[in-house]
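Postdoc handover notes: sequence design on the structure in folder B. Input tokens:
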């Protein structure tokens, strides 16, 4: 009796867990075969997994959608099962659980949809409805996570969704009912620019930003609205049936809405073309989408620059800031005006900083209306100081689109500084009197900038710094008799120019040379995708918990610098921890008309001895062979070969040569160690560079 009671309590707990919100995401399962536990039979079976999109946007789940098959009387019945909250949460439905009947209730737009575990009959507003093929809702587990799985097509149709199917990539495409775009308006009030898209009812959309800065391309905001048509009887269109609005105010050039009819469902693709990068946010208000343009803060982090820690805030435009002080609480406050924080949903966040003068650093999104009376949002950064007398020593300075915050216990400028100006250049500044009389020598053979400074004119300390920013490998400060010797070790393809010679300082701009890979067509553009990100961590190492998304981003950031140092333009689909949809990634590459595409991933396996590198491709075997051969040559890693994978959307939907590189196994100790090693990462990236040079030389 006691054993049966424990078993029943355990089942109740498992079911309740299976109905919890999907707010903690594990790896998005790769397409292919997955193993799930069916609690009704107690058996673990292998299933074909499927991917789901809603209005073009990925539905990321911690238990994959599966093709569930049953045999009855020698007849095969199959249906797609999905975690019940995978769709319902995104549509704003309410889900409850009745433990006495083992029934999940979905409440949506006046409907009560009831599905009972292992029952082939559902109830809609109390009326019995036979489930297609008699396949019921089930409790299933994947990698220790339990979810209530329900028949997708039945649930979707009861919620008014259209269901499509991409059989090549096993992608289920869900869309709201067909709607009409009835109005598009633009306004500018109190410095806030807005576009309002009005539809006949609620719509689903996918959005992304293409930054053309430094690529001789316009930047643009792209919005793809699924299962809609332009209402030509209510909205002005040109001879091609498209909407074109010339704005030409500030950074906005124009707005274009194009009707697309070549997909599974009609789609309207909207572009806001910009002369420079702008931040933006999109709000849903009933049947309207409101696009507000603003400066956005994409990331706030601590960076070590020449032995000193700086708080760095990255924005899309040059930041405007205000400083305030709260002596009673030992707080120094920096407000970045008119900005939206990209990860504001995470609330107040804390930065780890190694500075005894600063007890804590926090940041968050703040509504500034009551404080400044401007009705604008700000990003607030708060430094809690150990001693408020140090408040006067806090330095805040804008640097391009970044804001640097630093507290140095020593008053005055630092004797040597090095920091990034933009993604292709940095500034080295050395305090020295009689700057024009100091000796400067460039060692061309070893690519070293040497500066000889009289000790009477400076106060340097013997030291070695390693910026490791792919432009400068290290900076050495040494002594020889009456002189300091400063040696700056420049990376390949990096040069310098002397910015100015003040009487009290030397300054050098360290920059990537504008070298040409092919002189007839200019620099080649390579789009680099750091796989997964944001709510999707990718694979997780069973050894130390390393998340694939973090490894991928580290590879991508270092690869970008390496390529740019060697004559390529390189564009990252993401440079921070954010999520991009399945098709959005290649939409960006296609919009940029890139010459090649590289997606960086890491592998995992149940067998911990599995290790090595493999390269996946679609229609570019020569490209894949060139990349893969050079990676193996540089790293000496286990060669798992190249493989055709047309089922992978990032490969199949790209208009250019494309590969997906599995850099190693997070489940293998040797590979895991390598994936954490910058020297190994740089070797692998050098292999990619060599492969690109080889491939383009074949053209």
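Designed sequence:
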């Amino acid at each position: 009796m006691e054993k049966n009671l424990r078993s029943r309590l355990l089942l109740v707990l498992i079911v309740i867990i299976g109905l919890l919100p999907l707010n903690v995401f594990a790896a998005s399962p790769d397409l292919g075969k997955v193993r799930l536990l069916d609690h009704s039979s107690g058996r673990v079976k292998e299933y074909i997994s499927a991917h789901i999109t809603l209005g073009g946007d990925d539905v990321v789940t911690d238990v994959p959608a599966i093709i569930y098959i049953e045999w009855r009387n020698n007849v095969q019945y199959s249906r797609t099962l999905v975690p019940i909250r995978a769709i319902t949460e995104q549509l704003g439905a309410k889900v409850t659980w009745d433990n006495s009947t083992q029934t999940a209730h979905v409440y949506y737009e006046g409907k009560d949809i009831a599905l009972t575990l292992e029952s082939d009959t559902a109830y809609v507003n109390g009326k019995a409805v036979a489930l297609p093929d008699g396949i019921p809702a089930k409790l299933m587990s994947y990698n220790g996570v339990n979810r209530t799985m329900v028949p997708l097509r039945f649930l979707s149709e009861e919620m008014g969704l259209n269901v499509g199917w991409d059989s090549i990539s096993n992608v289920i495409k869900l869309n709201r009912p067909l709607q009409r775009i009835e109005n598009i308006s633009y306004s500018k009030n109190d410095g806030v620019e807005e576009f309002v898209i009005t539809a006949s009812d609620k719509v689903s959309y996918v959005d992304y930003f293409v930054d053309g800065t430094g690529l001789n391309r316009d930047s643009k905001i792209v919005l793809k609205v699924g299962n809609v048509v332009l209402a030509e009887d209510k909205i002005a269109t040109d001879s091609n049936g498209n909407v074109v609005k010339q704005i030409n105010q500030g950074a906005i050039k124009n707005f274009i809405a194009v009707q697309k009819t070549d997909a599974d469902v009609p789609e309207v693709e909207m572009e806001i073309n910009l002369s420079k990068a702008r931040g933006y946010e999109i709000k849903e208000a009933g049947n309207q989408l409101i696009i507000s343009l603003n400066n956005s803060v994409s990331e706030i982090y601590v960076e070590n620059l020449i032995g000193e820690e700086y708080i760095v805030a990255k924005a899309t435009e040059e930041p405007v800031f205000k400083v305030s002080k709260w002596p009673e609480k030992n707080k120094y406050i920096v407000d970045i005006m008119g900005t939206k924080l990209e990860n504001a949903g995470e609330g107040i966040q804390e930065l780890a900083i190694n500075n005894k003068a600063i007890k804590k650093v926090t940041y968050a999104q703040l509504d500034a209306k009551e404080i400044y009376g401007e009705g604008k949002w700000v990003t607030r950064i708060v430094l809690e100081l150990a001693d408020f007398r140090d408040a006067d020593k806090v330095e805040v300075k804008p640097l391009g689109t970044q804001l640097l915050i630093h507290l140095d216990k020593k008053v005055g400028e630092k004797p040597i500084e090095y920091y990034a100006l933009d993604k292709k250049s940095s500034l080295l500044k050395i305090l020295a009197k009689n700057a024009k009389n100091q000796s400067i020598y460039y060692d061309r053979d070893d690519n070293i900038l040497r500066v000889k400074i009289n000790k009477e004119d400076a106060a340097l300390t013997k030291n070695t710094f390693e910026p490791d920013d792919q432009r400068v490998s290290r900076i050495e400060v040494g002594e020889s008799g009456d002189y300091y010797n400063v040696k700056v070790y420049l990376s390949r393809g990096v040069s310098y120019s002397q910015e100015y010679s003040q009487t009290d300082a030397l300054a050098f701009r360290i920059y990537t040379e504008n070298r040409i890979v092919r002189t007839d067509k200019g620099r080649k553009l390579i789009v680099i995708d750091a796989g997964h990100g944001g709510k999707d961590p990718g694979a997780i190492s069973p050894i130390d918990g390393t998340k694939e998304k973090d490894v991928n981003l580290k590879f991508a950031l270092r690869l970008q610098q390496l390529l740019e140092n060697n004559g390529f333009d390189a564009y990252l689909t993401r440079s921070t921890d954010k999520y991009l949809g399945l098709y959005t990634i290649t939409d960006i590459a296609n919009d940029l008309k890139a010459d090649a595409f590289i997606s960086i991933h890491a592998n995992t396996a149940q067998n911990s001895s599995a290790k090595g590198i493999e390269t996946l491709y679609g229609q570019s075997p020569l490209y894949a062979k060139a990349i893969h051969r050079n990676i193996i040559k540089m790293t000496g890693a286990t060669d798992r070969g190249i493989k055709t994978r047309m089922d992978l959307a990032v490969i199949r939907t790209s208009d250019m040569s494309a590969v997906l590189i599995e850099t190693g196994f997070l489940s293998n100790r040797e590979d895991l160690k390598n994936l954490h090693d910058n020297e190994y990462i740089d070797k692998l990236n050098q292999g990619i560079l060599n492969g690109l040079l080889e491939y383009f030389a074949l053209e």
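Context for whoever picks this up: The two ends are 76 Å apart (CA to CA). Don't rerun without checking with the PI first.
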